[in-house]
């Protein structure tokens, strides 16, 4: 299996709660290499491209509003099978149900909002990773 890259986002809830370093440290501690990193005030245009697969879903507008609510830490990590590996570290989408030991399971919960504030994003395929890295890092 060749070396992959994935886009990791610490979403605005994670940055606001002061968890950026803790979250990135877990990914580094797993053994993946940090190759790009920046704080971004995302625009609606950027988010429309990033979340294009979700346009029209009931949580789409709350998701965009949430992602506009503060800065996001955008990172690229590299390693064999990093795409699957990061999603395993992140845990399942719903933080209430994410396994303890995962980022979402350890630090996330349901806040009674229309969008799951689940701390992180990770690309879900090599094609998504290439597309998303292009969007966030040009
Ligand atoms: P993922 O981040 O685990 O890949 P996706 O299905 O790609 O999950 O959804 C993107 C984001 O949209 C999620 O991380 C979460 O913040 C939000 N989201 C997804 N599904 C729901 C839902 O059913 N209700 C509320 N928010 C959701
Ligand atoms: Mg996704």
Automatic annotation (TrEMBL):
Set out the biological process GO terms recorded for this chain's protein. CTP biosynthetic process; GTP biosynthetic process; UTP biosynthetic process
Listed A to Z, the keywords are: ATP-binding, Cytoplasm, Kinase, Magnesium, Metal-binding, Nucleotide metabolism, Nucleotide-binding, Phosphoprotein, Transferase
Reactions catalysed: a 2'-deoxyribonucleoside 5'-diphosphate + ATP = a 2'-deoxyribonucleoside 5'-triphosphate + ADP; a ribonucleoside 5'-diphosphate + ATP = a ribonucleoside 5'-triphosphate + ADP
Q: How does it assemble?
A: Homotetramer.
Instruction: Write out the function statement from the record.
Output: Major role in the synthesis of nucleoside triphosphates other than ATP. The ATP gamma phosphate is transferred to the NDP beta phosphate via a ping-pong mechanism, using a phosphorylated active-site intermediate.
> Where does the source fall among the domains of life?
Bacteria
Family recorded in the similarity comment: Belongs to the NDK family.
Report the main location listed first in the record.
cytoplasm
- This one is known as Nucleoside diphosphate kinase
Q: Which cofactor does it need?
A: Mg(2+)
Ranges of residues in domain Nucleoside diphosphate kinase-like: 3-138
EC numbers listed for it are 2.7.4.6
Organism, by scientific name, is Arthrobacter crystallopoietes BAB-32
Which residues does the annotation say bind ATP? 11, 59, 87, 93, 104, 118
Name the Gene Ontology molecular function terms of this record. Answer: ATP binding; metal ion binding; nucleoside diphosphate kinase activity
Write down the SMART domains for this protein, in alphabetical order: NDK
Q: Where in the cell is it found?
A: Cytoplasm
Mention any one GO cellular component term assigned to this protein in its UniProt record.
cytoplasm
Which residues carry out catalysis? 121 (pros-phosphohistidine intermediate)
Signal sequence residues: none
Q: Which PANTHER family match?
A: NUCLEOSIDE DIPHOSPHATE KINASE
